[in-house]
What we know:
binds coenzyme A; Aminopeptidase; 7-stranded mixed β-sheet; 5 helices; alpha+beta; about 35% helix
Amino acid sequence: xxxxxxxxxxxxxxxxxxxxxxxxxxxxxxxxxxxxxxxxxxxxxxxxxxxxxxxxxxxxxxxxxxxxxxxxxxxxxxxxxxxxxxxxxxxxxxxxxxxxxxxxxxxxxxxxxxxxxxxxxxxxxxxxxxxxxxxxxxxxxxxxxxxxxxxxxxxxxxxxxxxxxxxxxxxxxxxxxx
Length: 178
Ligand SMILES: CC(C)(COP(=O)(O)OP(=O)(O)OC[C@H]1O[C@@H](n2cnc3c(N)ncnc32)[C@H](O)[C@@H]1OP(=O)(O)O)[C@@H](O)C(=O)NCCC(=O)NCCS
């Protein structure tokens, strides 16, 4: 991990984040999905203006992992994100966590997860949740390593395809604060 550094994103990262977010999303899900749905989803969710709005949102924190010459992963935490099936006083959401294939299995995701849990704990959250496609076994296995358990489900509207996401949550406390 010594060649990767992690830092909070700022507004100047909007273009880089948009590219990374779309690239990793397509790379992860293109094989098992319909191209039309992918185009619809990407047109709506990725682009410099979309990611700039995300970076301007006070409720959202984006972390970037980068090497000397490129962005390789990111995580986005929504500091306050209530959800009916998540029993908590204050729940945060791990909204996105994506690592380029080259850097998977090498500790970058662990570092981003640790920092995300720390950010949520600092914001006063006692739980953090996420939605994950039921057909994404690697991500589900990864989340279980941090104590996430399925507590419900919701529909993730992917283009014209209503997909089933598991809602997973884990309790956190101040011991996560770095
Ligand atoms: C999900 C993600 C962040 C996890 O990061 P990672 O660096 O790959 O995670 P790790 O390698 O530490 O852990 C993944 C675990 O899944 C296991 N795994 C790998 N492929 C698997 C598969 N097909 N089925 C089940 N488990 C699998 C690994 O063995 C590992 O468990 P282990 O540490 O007990 O051996 C990363 O794979 C990623 O960015 N994937 C693409 C984007 C994505 O799916 N994001 C999540 C959207 S909700």
